[in-house]
Write a structure and sequence with these properties.
The structure holds 2 protein chains of 2 kinds. By secondary structure, chain A is an all-alpha fold. Chain A contains 14 helices and no strands. In chain A, helix 2 packs across helix 3 and helix 6 packs across helix 9. By secondary structure, chain B is mainly α. Chain B has a domain of 200 residues: MetI-like fold (Orthogonal Bundle). Chain B is 65% helix and 0% strand. Chain B has 13 helices and no strands. The relative contact order of chain B is 0.15. Classes of the chains: A mainly alpha, B mainly alpha. Chains A and B meet through helix 1, helix 6, helix 7, helix 9 and helix 12 of A and helix 5, helix 6, helix 11 and helix 13 of B.
């Protein structure tokens, strides 16, 4: 099997497994979502009748059918993008709620990942090239220090000092209260202004992975024979570092993309909720707090599938960038 | 530099007892002592070991160090720091300094426990996959890759939401059973390389059982990987646990650093000026995570000579 065929097969297999896991998790757990919902309704003082139970069962897509037909129905629903109704949001389908929130997270996570990749890689190049220097220590220890911060906590501190004390940035939301999302320059600027603090939080707490990865690659590559050869030929140290070493050291760093994305997405869940940012993370926590299982399942599936697709695309790109892995 | 200790404890092949009787100190203890001594030679690891030792002392002697009860509402609520309540009091009038001291126990337990659990799972899966090429390896590697690409924190949040219990142990299990994939992948490739080495072939030909080969020949060669995997998993566990507790998915009445953050957020501590309630627990979480990362730097430097500091 060729490299690309193998990657596509693996991707489809992983996709199937992830989708199936999403189906299995709620059914493997003690108690059922139906019971949990009924308990919540009862606790809020509503009368629970047999009719209510039936309605919730249908709403949750858990009729008294065999597990196989449930699974088949689940797959059909996913293909048709039919995720049912939420019961924590008024009159909204899961699809509508997710579709409204997804662009916000996509832009936030996408931008911060790219910024962190570029900044972290550059810092890693400098740290690896000027190894053992003060610069190296500052970059390595500094980025490591920030990576030890729980992202939501760092976000809270930024919110308090830059938002609340200094009033430099807005305290909550993805755009000014009263504005309606539309594509005009003033709205985009407003949205960008609101996203400065969450984006800063995500970039700073996820920088270390890129820095350390790139630094290690630089150091390993600097030990190669062709570097000694280039030095022997009298090439300038800067030329060697940037044109010879950094280019080759960059390649393995591309493979860390998937894992880094996981870190940023995980961090963004809580960071979004801290900043009241109208994205997928806030929606997920809202679903968790209301025990809104259909919404929660759909969001988890969406996050997983988008990660799988991104990693798959990076894998394909890597196969193009480095022909050696194709063998 | 790591050779400093070579004189005191002669290096010998793991699993082979020295000639002339039983050693005075058990092998495993000598091994741990030697590892710590070697790590101590690395500057960053020394910082990490010092911080970790500090938190160990605080966790063990919490009843002696805490001036007040961490749970009793003995004071007026929302006090700012003063000479009696060093970090102020909570909305329920509890002493936050005492909560921080006792909270060290829970945070250490979850961090180290989940790290250990993840490492054991990673070792088991990595060893079996590395030793059984073919269908077993394929299935386990596929599972590992799947677990690797599942989004960690969202998965933990979903699992913790479904599970009814919200005890510390639930958090520990959820984090442990979701955080093993990175380690398993590294250990699988190491085990697969070791399997083809001559000394393993020699052991096989001399009739040793697979079980013995794995535990006496292979495992000692995977110790530095296992240690790195342990501290990596523990770092992630400390941060993940604080996130879950902050969301209220743990038991908010268990005193831990994460639950102090949860109550601070619930009481709007930042808006009422009690920012110290947010600052201190987060700083402790970051320091503990940092100590694990620094120890891992030391392990990395020992196992990859190119990274070693001169």
């Amino acid at each position: 099997m060729g490299y690309f065929t193998r990657k596509v097969t693996l991707f489809l297999g992983t996709l199937w497994a992830a989708v199936t896991l999403n189906f299995a998790i709620p059914r493997l757990m003690p108690g059922s979502p139906v019971q949990a919902t009924l308990a919540r309704l009862a606790a809020s003082g509503q009368v629970v009748t047999n009719a209510t139970r039936r309605a919730i069962e249908i709403q949750l897509g858990l009729p008294h059918a065999s597990i196989l037909s449930q699974y088949f129905q689940y797959l059909v629903n996913i293909v048709q993008l039919h995720f049912g109704m939420t019961y924590s949001l008024q009159d909204e389908s899961v699809k509508q709620a997710v579709a409204a929130a997804a662009p916000w997270t996509l832009v936030l996570v996408g931008t911060t990942t790219v910024i962190a990749f570029v900044a972290g890689t550059l810092l890693g190049v400098v740290a690896g090239w000027r190894r053992q220097s003060r610069m190296d220590s500052a970059v390595t220890v500094g980025s490591t220090f920030f990576s030890a911060f729980p992202p939501f906590w760092f976000g809270l501190l930024l919110l308090y000092f830059l938002g609340f004390k200094e009033q430099l940035f807005p305290l909550t939301g993805g755009y000014s209260a009263g504005a309606t999302p539309h594509l005009t320059l003033s709205f985009l600027l407003d949205a960008a202004y609101h996203s400065v603090l969450p984006a800063t939080t995500l970039v700073i707490t996820s920088l270390a992975g890129w820095v350390l990865g790139m630094r290690n690659n630089m150091i390993n590559t600097l030990g190669e024979d062709y570097v000694v050869f280039a030095e022997g030929n009298g090439l300038k140290s800067r030329t060697i570092a940037l044109l010879y070493v950094a280019r080759n050291a960059l390649l393995p760093n591309v493979t860390s993309f998937g894992l880094a994305l996981g870190t940023v997405i995980g961090g963004s869940v809580l960071v979004e909720s801290i900043f009241g940012y109208p994205g997928i993370g806030s929606l997920l926590l809202q679903a968790v707090n209301n025990r809104d299982y259909p919404l929660m399942q759909a969001i988890f599936l969406m996050i997983t599938v988008s990660m799988l697709v991104t990693i798959f695309l990076v894998d394909l790109l890597y196969g193009v960038l480095d022909p050696r892995v194709r063998q | 530099m790591p050779m400093d200790n070579a004189q005191q404890v002669p290096a010998r092949l793991p699993g082979i007892r020295p000639q002339g009787g039983v050693p005075a100190i058990p092998n495993s203890l000598v091994f741990v002592g030697r590892s710590v001594a070697t790590l101590w030679g690395n500057g960053k690891a020394r910082v990490g070991l010092t911080i970790l030792a500090f938190f160990f002392v605080v966790a063990i002697f919490a009843p002696l160090l805490a001036p007040h009860s961490p749970t009793a509402s003995n004071f007026p609520p929302y006090l700012n720091p003063d000479s009696r309540n060093w970090f102020g009091t909570t909305g329920n009038g509890q002493d936050v300094f005492s909560q921080m001291v006792y909270g060290t126990r829970v945070s250490m337990l979850v961090g180290l426990g989940a790290g250990l659990l993840a490492t054991v799972v990673a070792l088991a899966i990595g060893l079996v996959a590395g030793f059984r090429p073919g269908i077993v390896d394929d299935v386990l590697s596929f599972t590992t890759n799947l677990a690797l690409v599942l989004p960690g924190l969202p998965l933990m949040i979903v699992l913790a939401t479904y599970l009814k219990s919200n005890s510390v142990w639930m958090i520990l299990l959820v984090i442990g059973f979701t955080g093993w994939a990175t380690g398993a992948r590294v250990m699988r490739s190491q085990a697969a390389t070791l399997r083809t080495r001559d000394f393993v072939l020699a052991a096989t030909l001399s009739g040793e059982k697979l079980f013995r080969i794995v535990f006496r020949e292979i495992l000692p060669n995977m110790v530095s990987l296992a240690a790195a995997s342990f501290f990596g998993a523990a770092t992630a566990a400390v941060i993940a646990a604080s996130s879950l507790e902050f969301l209220g998915l743990g038991n908010p009445n268990t005193v831990s650093w994460g639950s102090i953050l949860y109550w601070a957020e619930n009481d709007n501590a930042l808006l009422t000026g009690q920012w110290i309630l947010v600052l201190i627990p987060g700083l402790a979480i970051a320091l503990l995570a940092l100590s694990f990362i620094f120890i891992n730097f030391g392990i990395d430097a020992l196992s990859n000579p190119r990274l070693r500091e001169r």
